[in-house]
Amino acid sequence: VMIEADAWAAFINVKADSADWNTTCPICPLMAATLGSTEIFKRILLRNYPDQAQRSIKFLSNTAFSALTYGLPVVSQVPQIRPGLALKNLAIVGVGAGGSAAVYGLASMPELAGQVSLIDPGYHKRSNLNRYLLSTYDDCINQTAKVAAAMGFLSNYQGGLRVIPYLKSYEDLL
């Protein structure tokens, strides 16, 4: 599986003819890593469980995808993200599987400013450990609140960002 990416385009099993390899935007590198690991997992699945071959499992080949257009990448339309991107009125509701991935993406951005609210009433559980990107086994044993772990992770990488945790459901905040 060949994986390449620049700021806004992911390339799976295809050579990128033109791309900006000097960008600091992590959007498509994260997406390409997800798609690439999915392709690898499908191959491992079929190698270990050949009886699954009758299922309609498709593999990506010659795939180029733009997160800007949800189509083919257009290099001339690529915006540059400069350090100091300001967040305003941003809230992530739920910091479990999907929300922790969003927090990880934010942490990967260059020098964010402003504030983000993290909203989740839950605590880490061992049964979900494989799905929570920011969790550790100790978080499960210590019953760490998901917002606390997400806040700590984000604060470690984005010192200029104000993180406001809410250990409540979204409905309780309305």
Describe this structure in words.
The protein is an alpha/beta fold. Helix content is 32%, strand content 18%. β4 (86-93), α2 (97-108) and β5 (113-119) form a beta-alpha-beta unit. α2 (97-108) packs parallel to α4. The protein is flat. The model has no long low-confidence stretch (mean pLDDT 88).
Gross geometry: flat
Output the helix-strand order. EEHEEHEHHEH
Using only C-alpha atoms, the radius of gyration works out to 19 Å
Measured between the Cα atoms of the first and last residue, the distance is 46 Å
Strand order of the largest sheet: 1-2-3
Could you tell me the number of beta strands? 6
Helical region count? 5
Helix content: 25-40%
Largest pleated sheet: 3 strands, antiparallel
> Can you give the mean pLDDT?
88
Parts with pLDDT < 50 across at least 5 consecutive residues: none
> Which class of secondary structure composition applies to the elements?
alpha/beta
- Percentage beta strand: 15-25%
